[in-house]
Amino acid sequence: MYPIHEPLQSGLLRVSDIHQIYWERSGNPNGKAVIFLHGGPGGGATAECRGFFDPDRYHIIIIDQRGCGRSLPYACIDDNTTWDLVADIEKVRNLLGIEQWQVFGGSWGSTLALAYAITHPQRVRELVLRGIFLCRPSELAWANQAGANAFFPEAWQDYLAPIPVHKRHDLISAYHELLCNPNTDETQCLQAARAWAQWESHIVHLHPNDEAVAVYNDAKAALAIARIENHYFAHRGWLSGEFALLNHVAKIRHIPTIIVQGRYDMCTPMHTAWELHQALPQSTLVVTIAGHSAFEPENKQALIAATDQFAA
Predict the structure, then answer these.
(1) pTM for the complete prediction?
(2) Contacts (Cβ under 8 Å, ≥6 apart) of 26
(3) Catalytically annotated residues
């Protein structure tokens, strides 16, 4: 990956009466603008995310979406929807005076990138998408009800543990009671957050990654990704029916797009990337021998090749 430089500027932008989102810019302020959209939802961004872009050629903008990372208030799900986040991206673009930019997003970040591009196609120069996720019921069920559990049965038992047997027929709803109900006992809520976040950490890597799982031994660190993800999943990402993303991709068929997808992605299986590629005939689909994480070697290589190609 490219060298990680400190931000040129960073701050908090008030985007609602409740929320302030963290933003930063690094690299070359006269270079090609790109915005990095992290996953989750609720995952937050890290300094390492700057490494996907040549700092001599890119003006790199990174944000933490509502309620996560360095944004305030932490783990807050009030006024926190897909369309709020789309509006926030526009507010950051206006703040920085950027006319057009490349949009780079993986996992949930690919969902948000598509929602933004469909809403503001005139603002998007290129799309780099990884680990494609469209927030459809079948995709949510794969990761959170039945599908990935067949490959990780031992980790699945820990995911089931906080949920009473009679509620396990709808795990997203059962977790919603524990994570999003203000009347839930704090200890129960944090136990559920840890279980949710650690389950996801098990399935995003091709090879076991105990360090990534151990990050969420700290249940408060797990709270944002668990609560915000569950909040979005319980509402199907506000992307069902007339707002389903594939229904509107004709609006972005003119935008150069590179899709990077791990062949053995157990979090967002490859068939969704294939469907998106078929719907966007101008796109390039790069299939890697990798899992879901952007930081797996083949995924990193393909993503950097994509940003290098578009930097030209």
Answers:
(1) 0.97
(2) 5, 6, 7, 8, 50, 55, 60, 62
(3) 107, 265, 292
